[in-house]
Amino acid sequence: MSIDLETARKVAKLARIRVEDEHLPELAQEFNAILGLIDHLNEVDVEGVEPMTSVTPQRLKRRVDVVTDGDQPAKVLANAPDAREGFFAVPKVVE
Fold this sequence. Notes:
Elements: H1 5-14, H2 24-42, H3 73-77, E1 83-84, E2 87-88
Antiparallel strand pairs: 1-2
Helix pairs in contact: 1-2
C-alpha cells in the first residue's frame, strides 16, 4: 500500500492538523515508511507466543473492588453551585 499526496492531505484533515502543501510529500513519505515498518512486523511469526505486558514476569498490584461513597461528601458538594440535604440541587426541568 502506498500513500499519495491526496491521501496524506485527507489523513491530516481527519487528524485535525494543518499541513502546508509543500510539506505533503514529506508527510506522505513518513506515512509510507510507517506502513513499510508495519508490513515488516507482519512478517514475524508469532504463533504460540503469549502476549505480555513487561519483559519481566510480574503481577500487577490489585485492590479489592468495593463500591464506596468516597468518604468525602463535603469536598464533593463544595463544588456544587447548590447543594441541599447532602445532594446536588438542580433546577426542575420537567413539568
